[in-house]
Specification:
Elements lengths: L1 E7 L1 H4 L10 H18 L4 E7 L2 H11 L10 H24 L4 E3 L7 E2 L5 E2 L3 H8 L3 E5 L1 E5 L3 E5 L1 H11 L4 E5 L15 E2 L20 H9 L6 E4 L4 H5 L6 E3 L3
Parallel strand pairs: 1-2, 1-9, 2-6, 3-6, 4-7, 9-11, 10-12
Antiparallel strand pairs: 4-5, 7-8, 11-12
The protein binds Isopentenyl phosphate.
Length: 253
């Protein structure tokens, strides 16, 4: 059995600097690539879980309300605004995948996950596992989560990828980003990362409103996975799903 976890970066599927705007063309392109693989090329027994980021939906509202992964809020309007925007984006992603004949179903992490007072995430894998065994493609998203003692904090899609890739025994993990991989200081794609220290100097912070830390945080989190993870651009979704290793491959211990 093979289990693929694919994250669609928020900046891939939204116009990152235009509040609450889907990049319809880019979303359709990646959904079509996923649909073609899912219906025509996927080996029997291979299942797929999709996670998407916040882009101009979640990050915009999180910044407006001053909520981040570390700084929580007990303001229920903030929670509703951030979560509501993410639900809207999720509906657009699920809709595009359904149009491409992928049996996509929406999953809203705020209803299931929580953080301990230390900020550790708990997210039960079982509901998602049952969806996968019934042949659904669960589509989760970055969200807000209840955080003991803090109200609610931001849950990034990357944290969900790491948590569920481990919890569900993913065999392959892919992160579709706006760039073709992790770039060095000459803007060349680094083909493989095995140690964060080797690339720490190249990884700046994201320039748009992104409360969860950009590429540096992604690489650090992916190095903690058992499965190899690939970071690639939107044109490489198809090749990744077909088993190639486009962009940057991140292999932890
Ligand atoms: O874009 C963040 O998810 P990410 C989600 O994967 C929100 O970091 C609500 C800002």
């Amino acid at each position: 059995m093979s289990r693929v976890v694919l994250k669609l970066g928020g900046s891939v599927v939204t116009e990152k600097d235009e509040p609450e705007t889907v990049d319809t063309e880019a979303l359709e392109r990646v959904a079509t690539a996923i649909g073609e693989w899912y219906t025509d090329e996927r080996a029997a027994g291979t299942d797929l879980l999709v996670v998407h980021g916040g882009g101009s939906f979640g990050h915009h509202h999180a910044a407006a309300h001053g909520v981040s992964r570390e700084t929580g809020s007990t303001d229920t309007q903030a929670v509703r605004d951030i979560h509501g925007a993410m639900q809207d984006l999720n509906e657009a992603v699920v809709g595009a995948l359904a149009d491409a004949d992928v049996p996509a179903v929406p999953v809203h992490p705020f209803s299931a996950g929580y953080r301990t007072p230390e900020g550790l995430l708990f997210y039960p894998a079982e509901p998602t596992a049952s969806m996968l065994s019934e042949g659904f493609v669960p589509v989760l998203h970055g969200d807000v989560v209840a955080h003991a003692g803090e109200g609610a904090t931001i849950l990034s899609g990357d944290e969900l990828v790491v948590e569920l890739a481990e919890g569900l025994g993913a065999t392959r993990v892919g992160l579709c980003s706006t760039v073709p991989g992790v770039l060095d200081d000459a803007d060349e794609v680094i083909s493989e990362i095995v140690d964060y220290e080797d690339v720490a100097d190249y990884l700046g912070e994201s320039e748009s409103t992104d409360v969860t830390g950009g590429m540096a945080a992604k690489v650090r989190a992916l190095l903690g996975l058992r499965a190899a993870a690939s970071v690639f651009g939107p044109d490489d979704v198809g090749p990744f799903l077909r088993g190639e290793e486009p962009g940057t491959v991140i292999r932890g211990e």
